[in-house]
């Protein structure tokens, strides 16, 4: 199977067909009435933007900033109790307030939407082909059904669904997540709309599938000429995909402009902080990430003045007096004072006719421009010391964990009463790695590659199906119950979702104290240790009597880390510890993990799908594919000279938050999805998607089909890859 190599060397969206906006949103506000006497929630407050044909507008911001609500309002999809004001014009026609029947005629034909979760966006009881045909027929009832079916097959082929005519009859649950999102894009394209709104279309997808979806959206724009509104929190995706950016905070725009202006010449502290918080795969020495303290305000209890002021290092007393206008660069007060009447002018004031002009809602933006400040000049960034435990040669340091030839196969059974085994899921199929004192090993790969199964086998501290697991030099298969209980002190885990891993009925004190009490610590020692840990992870000791629901996501993850550190372990297993967090909160947790490692000499087994975070935090990286490790080595070596074609594709698919670099890169877009671990391909498991396979001579391709490659040293260094032709 071949791959498509896409070079982003031209303008992101090309030249717009005209200067007349296709979609124009003006002073849009959305308010939800408070329930049970609670105050109203002001979800969107004065959002204005326009987008022209063939143009891509990116809307970014943290969770709860109003991105999705504003798009749902534009589509007329909000519930009846939402109070909406302002204007939404489609080709100059006001559509806000149109009745459902009229809006239904426009949705899908003039303006369409791609949702974040394709499984809930598709009807489970109809085939995907019937749903695509319905999207055509609903806007052209007189069209022959055969023509609608032919159009559905054509759309499936256009978005890269293999065997489109056969898959027409498949149901949504028979498709992978990436394939379901392809169907949603096909449905959005079905009637050649003028505007496509994409609400986090790649958030739930692996990075290789994300690259496919972004490529499809480029195809959709090219085929339909549609304007695209891309709503996302991924600043790397925005850098290489959009023409203009609108940054939202607390329900309103705080900065907008051309993508290059926002990324290279941002003048809003919030935007600068967001960009500084993103781990950069392309930087050799990024240093500590830029953390933004605190959390976004409640939209039912906004602070007076600028809503970002409580988190802003540049805030002055006058920032609390009135909310700043969104003004064109150069029109802001240079001395930091708020102009008389600014608050009365409203959030939409100060707009100019030029939609491309950079506009900022900050009274100190002129100062930022004059001083040439960067995010690191504005935000206090912690100094992370080197870890004494990681000093010296790797071979001389103590071994914290060793995994040899680990195998975990799950039985596939059939039958309701008399079950019989009909096959196996090869979740983990013979992997080897070790972790030394003070070291971080990252385990990466697509969903279904075996990362989580590997973690569960390690944390189980029991005899594996095959192979050995040694912790601190002790084979866990030989341990008795008492020894296994004692060993758990030295190895703890931090889970991906802190809300589901923390008992909602326990206070923070009891959550952290529980492992101490379980291991028989005295009450006074428990109290002292809990307060010590709360302080260590940067939380307020006055909050120990609160419950998990009273904390933000980042704070809950810090509680989970404090609990994991309670027994002074030497090895932490981190299962996607920052994937559920906004980028500004993620930066603080990543910095904390690095600080704790340096101070306490910890070793980490870090499981992640975000390879930018891995580049920032890991010393070594192991890449998994269908239950096998296909490449392992020093992080710097693997990222600078990846040897396995799968590693090359993974790294190629990661977007870089730098518009010029991202547009100039060549992306390897893999075909298809990860094969089933119940039926892996013969020989090299990656050959069905490998970009090198089709270019090899037939004799070499036969070797790939029939002989499974062993992992061997490459590049004359601390790096190994399982590919017959890794160095070719």
UniProtKB/TrEMBL annotation:
<keyword id="KW-0813">Transport</keyword>
<feature type="domain" description="ABC transporter">
    <location>
        <begin position="23"/>
        <end position="275"/>
    </location>
</feature>
<dbReference type="InterPro" id="IPR027417">
    <property type="entry name" value="P-loop_NTPase"/>
</dbReference>
<dbReference type="GO" id="GO:0015833">
    <property type="term" value="P:peptide transport"/>
</dbReference>
<dbReference type="InterPro" id="IPR017871">
    <property type="entry name" value="ABC_transporter-like_CS"/>
</dbReference>
<dbReference type="Pfam" id="PF08352">
    <property type="entry name" value="oligo_HPY"/>
</dbReference>
<dbReference type="Pfam" id="PF00005">
    <property type="entry name" value="ABC_tran"/>
</dbReference>
<keyword id="KW-0067">ATP-binding</keyword>
<dbReference type="InterPro" id="IPR003593">
    <property type="entry name" value="AAA+_ATPase"/>
</dbReference>
<dbReference type="GO" id="GO:0016887">
    <property type="term" value="F:ATP hydrolysis activity"/>
</dbReference>
<dbReference type="InterPro" id="IPR013563">
    <property type="entry name" value="Oligopep_ABC_C"/>
</dbReference>
<feature type="compositionally biased region" description="Polar residues">
    <location>
        <begin position="1"/>
        <end position="14"/>
    </location>
</feature>
<dbReference type="InterPro" id="IPR003439">
    <property type="entry name" value="ABC_transporter-like_ATP-bd"/>
</dbReference>
<dbReference type="InterPro" id="IPR050319">
    <property type="entry name" value="ABC_transp_ATP-bind"/>
</dbReference>
<keyword id="KW-0547">Nucleotide-binding</keyword>
<dbReference type="GO" id="GO:0005524">
    <property type="term" value="F:ATP binding"/>
</dbReference>
<feature type="domain" description="ABC transporter">
    <location>
        <begin position="401"/>
        <end position="651"/>
    </location>
</feature>
<protein>
    <submittedName>
        <fullName>ABC transporter ATP-binding protein</fullName>
    </submittedName>
</protein>
<feature type="region of interest" description="Disordered">
    <location>
        <begin position="332"/>
        <end position="351"/>
    </location>
</feature>
<feature type="region of interest" description="Disordered">
    <location>
        <begin position="1"/>
        <end position="20"/>
    </location>
</feature>
<comment type="similarity">
    <text>Belongs to the ABC transporter superfamily.</text>
</comment>
<dbReference type="GO" id="GO:0055085">
    <property type="term" value="P:transmembrane transport"/>
</dbReference>
